[in-house]
Amino acid sequence: MRKLLPAALACVLVASACGTSAGDGTTTLNVFAAASLTEAFGALEKQFEAQHEGVDVRLNLAGSSQLASQINEGAPADVFASANEKNMDKVMDAGGVEGRPQTFATNQLTIAVAPGNPKGVEGFADLAREDLTVVVCAAQVPCGAATEEVERATGVTLAPASEEQDVKAVLNKVRLGEADAGLVYVTDVTSAGDKVDSVDFPESERAINEYPIAALSSAGEPELARQFRDLVLGEVGRKELTRVGFGAP
Asked: Where in the cell is it found (predicted)?
């Protein structure tokens, strides 16, 4: 199981390395998925490969805005799973989507803090405290857009120390002690286990993200792309998504 580097556009420049069929007879399925789907899609990748002999699922996991740009610029992709509809729309408007995208999961923000919550963060308004080092996602990334929506709803303006390109980068800064708090998804805290704690806040319900998935019109393996999409939408996909904390669509 090989993973694509985030700079998937390099594949466009080295076509021989990115074909759908390798010299050993392996067929490659390129799945572009939001970083917050890392754990769930990692498990589904293994299941899909076990059911399809000779198929290598390559996951490109990054911020949805980055993935949408890569697809629209010609990166080889068979399936796109976005953390919000806005970035899926960018690909659909460019004619890159087969049929209509389908929502397969929901997610919402929580505050990631160090184990034991040593800084005593109690809610969203606390993230404006001057004694806290806070990190968030960049505005063009779905978790960043959700953060801005909560800011508008609450009237609380944050002054983050950094704005990261995907939600896993935010989580890692908290996990490594480089930040006191970070706005991530519920699923990210679930996957982190005891490495971080979370502080839920009711205002997160103002910015629930819906996750759409679609097979792409330029897919090198269109039938396999549809089958992977259907796996995500079906009972097996729902089980894995629920396991890591995603809500039903």
From this structure: Cell membrane
